[in-house]
């Protein structure tokens, strides 16, 4: 007897980082996360941004930063207005 994975398997990786944000490749979709909308990543080391895990389908986690985001939040951050305030 063999076991089959349930649902569609996806993977996530950071494909590029710029001074304005970074691109997350999820299956066949590339999403841009601007630092203005996702400030947790702005001053993070590159290695911390690159280490992304798909904790569950459509839910991504950056363990070094303790940041987790859902796919819908990434696609449409205006629908989810809770943004961390940077320390002054």
Would you give an account of this structure?
This protein is mainly beta and 88 residues long. It has a single domain, classed as NE0471 N-terminal domain-like (2-Layer Sandwich). Helices cover 11% and strands 34% of the residues. The chain is built from two helices and six strands. The chain has helices spanning 46-50, 71-75, and strands at 12-17, 21-26, 29-34, 53-56, 59-62, 67-70. It has a three-stranded antiparallel beta sheet. A hairpin with a 4-residue loop joins strand 5 (59-62) and strand 6. The longest helix has 5 residues, at 46-50. The protein is globular, with a radius of gyration of 14 Å. Residues 1-9 have low confidence and may be disordered.
CATH architecture: 2-Layer Sandwich
Give the % helix. 10-25%
For the biggest sheet, the summary is: 3 strands, antiparallel
What fraction of the residues are assigned to beta strands by DSSP? 25-35%
Tell me the distance between the termini. Answer: 59 Å
The H-and-E topology, N to C, reads as: EEEHEEEH
Task: Say how many strands there are.
Answer: 6
Radius of gyration: 14 Å
CATH topology-level fold name: NE0471 N-terminal domain-like
Low-pLDDT stretches: 1-9
């Amino acid at each position: 007897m063999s076991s089959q994975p349930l649902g569609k398997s996806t993977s996530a990786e950071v494909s590029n980082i710029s001074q304005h944000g970074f691109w997350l490749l999820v299956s066949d979709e590339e999403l841009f996360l601007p630092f203005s909308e996702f400030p947790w990543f702005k001053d993070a080391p590159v290695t911390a941004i690159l280490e992304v895990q798909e904790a569950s389908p459509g839910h991504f986690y950056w363990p070094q930063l303790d940041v987790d985001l859902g796919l819908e939040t990434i696609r449409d951050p205006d629908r989810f207005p809770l943004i961390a305030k940077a320390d002054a």
